[in-house]
Amino acid sequence: MNYDEFNQFCDSLPATTHVVQWGNSQVWKVGGKVFAIGGWAKNKQPAFTFKTSELNFEFLKQHEYYQPAPYFANRGMKWIQQFDSVKELDQELQYYLTESHRLVSLGLTKLKQKELGLNQILK
Predict the structure, then answer these.
(1) Can you tell me the distance from the alpha carbon of 80 to that of 2, in angstroms, rounded to the nearest whole number?
(2) Entry pTM
């Protein structure tokens, strides 16, 4: 996945906003809270950072293409960075970006979730 594909995918998720900040990184938010970052690579390859569940964090930090996210994981947060973007991992990355969006949106107030049309149970 490249940065254009990353931005296109994140833009397809509900109630997202995009800003460029933190050293020219592509930062995606839901309800004003960050759920995905494109950038911060040590080399010229794309790198993508996202929030995970505890179980996924433990799994991914041992995977050859992932590492605990710089600036986040060392503060005890469960954020992972995919630092080696290979085409075979695009679908997997989309899953984790969607899951990050969901996890971050669940941390919003119920009122904010309702305003954004997120996590609503249909009756």
Answers:
(1) 17
(2) 0.91
